[in-house]
Specification:
Layout (H helix, E strand, L loop, with lengths): L4 H26 L3 H37 L17 H30 L3 E8 L2 E7 L1 H6 L8 H7 L1 H9 L5 E8 L5 E13 L2 E10 H42 L6 H32 L7 E4 H18 L3 E4 L6 E4 L1 H18 L7 E9 L2 E8 L27 H11 L3 E7 L2 E9 L2
Parallel strand pairs: 7-9
Antiparallel strand pairs: 1-2, 1-5, 3-4, 4-5, 6-8, 9-10, 10-12, 11-12
């Protein structure tokens, strides 16, 4: 407690003054100076009292500071005692711990705020002896499952027995599964349950996350509908607006008493424009119908090599016209269970995209290859074009998205739907400065 040399010096000086005062008082009594001796004793008393309060204040400040630190109570203000250099280190320790606690409290508030604002149920359990207590339950868990923020595991079991049974069955170990829970005594909903166990500073914690599958699906469906309606409304307005304007112009011309040759020419051009816009609108609707009414694939064992050769033969006139060299490396006779007409459509779409990508390219090459791996056939269609820009990479499979003025924007979307209907997938990547589309299908 009394660590500094200055403290010892002050106490030592006080003791010396007290001893000297006593000696002088006794001396004055011996020589008969009674009042002087009494005055000396009074001074000794005052010095002793001052020393008592000095030591008492030091002990009180020390005890209060240590008690505050031990109890994590940093509400006390010791600024008025900072002039006393005796406690510099103690006050520095107090302020350091106070700042750390403030930082920790701030973090806790932020973390709890984040947990309370996410649309996932979160509950954290803490082990106490042989039982578990609820360390944290976020607002979504409490409100969504209509569970009060209880503090004991046994209370939660009364509210959500099906969830607690699964956790107890696995003895509070790592879990990743799906579970059906009834919400507010209504129909059951399916949730993804993820749980993990961890130990922090010799404290055992069990973290449970619940995500509603329905809410994720509904959000994706809503976003898809919004995007689709944007595309449809855009295309309809692009066709209807000029047609309406032309109709108004024709109405004005028809109301005239006579039509000049120039007026007849305007009528002709107007009708041709309406036909072009109508044809564009019809193609758009036909494209949407193809996507919406894609028939289930009629699968049969088919040689991949034959399908690729048929597609190259179909596209050969366009390939020759654009001076494009095609390298077909599919020589091994892979057998795959597919609807050959639908898969041919996929290859035709990909070859058409490659032809358009190579329009302004000096090196015009397309290569097709295949590889069998892990009971799957991986087919690559690559071209030497400039590639797909990063800004649109995530949009290329979206319905009606196109970068070409004459494009319908359904080729890649239709291809993706066909491949997925066959239990496979199609992806895009850049490989060795080439644009590569990779198709994965199950090998028969």
């Amino acid at each position: 407690m009394l660590r500094t040399l200055q403290t010892y010096k002050l106490l030592f000086l006080r003791l010396i003054f007290i001893v000297i005062g006593i000696e002088l008082s006794l001396y004055f009594f011996r020589i008969g100076l009674l009042f002087t001796g009494i005055f000396g004793l009074c001074m000794v008393f005052l010095l002793g009292r001052e020393m008592y309060f000095y030591v008492r204040n030091m002990v009180l400040i020390y005890n209060k500071t240590i008690s505050s630190i031990l109890q994590d109570d940093f509400s006390s203000d010791f600024s008025k005692h900072k002039f006393n250099s005796t406690y510099n280190e103690l006050f520095t320790l107090y302020e350091t711990l106070k700042n750390k606690q403030n930082e920790q409290v701030t973090r806790d508030i932020i973390y709890r705020s984040i947990l309370n604002n996410i649309e996932s149920g979160v509950i954290i359990l803490q082990k106490q002896e042989n039982d578990w207590s609820i360390f944290l339950m976020n607002d979504y868990f409490s409100s969504h499952f209509n569970v009060p923020k209880v503090s004991k595991w046994k209370y939660l079991k009364n509210q959500l027995p099906s969830l607690c049974e699964i956790i107890e069955k696995d003895d509070f170990h790592e879990i990743k599964t799906s579970i059906e829970l009834s919400i507010n005594k209504q129909s059951k909903q399916t949730f993804v349950l993820q749980a993990s166990r961890t130990e922090i500073f010799e404290q055992d914690y069990f973290i449970v996350l619940l995500d509603s599958i329905q809410s994720v699906v509904e959000k994706k469906e809503k976003d898809a509908w919004i995007n689709l309606m944007k595309v449809i409304s855009h295309e309809l307005l692009n066709s209807i607006t000029p047609i309406r304007s032309i109709c108004q112009n024709l109405e004005d011309l028809v109301e005239q008493d006579s039509l000049s040759a120039e007026d007849l020419e305007d009528v002709k051009h107007s009708v041709q424009t309406m036909l072009r816009r109508s044809d564009h609108l019809q193609k758009f609707v036909e494209g949407y119908r193809k996507l919406a009414m894609l028939p289930s694939p009629k699968k049969e064992k088919t040689a991949l090599q034959q399908v690729v050769e048929n597609c190259i033969q179909i596209m050969n006139p366009l390939l020759r016209k654009n001076n494009i060299e095609v390298t077909n490396s599919v020589t091994q006779n892979y057998l795959i269970n597919i609807d050959s007409q639908q898969i041919e459509q996929v290859f035709i779409n990909l070859l058409t995209n490659s032809i358009n990508a190579l329009e302004n390219s000096n090196l015009k090459q397309i290569s097709i290859s295949a590889e069998a791996k892990n009971n799957r056939i991986f087919i690559k269609v690559s071209d030497s074009g400039k590639g797909i820009e990063k800004e649109i990479e995530e949009k290329i499979f979206l319905p009606f998205f196109t970068t070409r003025p004459e494009g319908a924007g359904i080729g890649l979307t239709l291809s993706k739907n066909i491949i997925e209907a066959h239990g496979g997938y199609i992806s895009h990547k850049n490989e060795n400065e080439k644009t590569v589309f990779e198709i994965s299908l199950i090998e028969d």
